[in-house]
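so im writing up the methods section and need the P-loop containing nucleoside triphosphate hydrolase protein record in one place, dumping it here so i stop losing it
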Amino acid sequence: MNRHTDLLRRLFDINFSKPSKIQERALPLLLRDPQTAKYMLSQSPTRMGKTAAFVLTMLSRVDALCVAPSRERACQIMAVVKSMDYIKRRILDVSEVKILVLDEAGNMLDEENFREQCVRIKNMLPRQHPTQIVLFSSTFPNHVRTLVSRFAPNANKVELKKG
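--- predicted struct ---
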């Protein structure tokens, strides 16, 4: 992985020495140039390392990070972000966004309110450069797969079963 040395050092510090099966298969696609891997759909059972895969990808590209001491505080912060609706009002500049990650995408695209927000955000992403769109979930119910294929057409797929 050609990632920033501080990030690699931190991975070794937390004893992250061998990727899980989902990380081993997903990371090479995630870390590619978004033009060659614009969409990705990744499914594996719970607690198999999906979050670490997309967080590592995000950290390799992001230039800002908000840290909260608890889930409750993170939810409060998110509520404030939603109430300001920066993206919708075009106050938040998304012109340089390089990756959009939907965690628990199966559930997000299954619920109408979340689905509408996800589509709205996707439609606001820049067209002048490729933005990688990554969907991670432990399940993609059959009735959601059509929505997923419209949201991320011709996605690279990494799917693992419980084993």
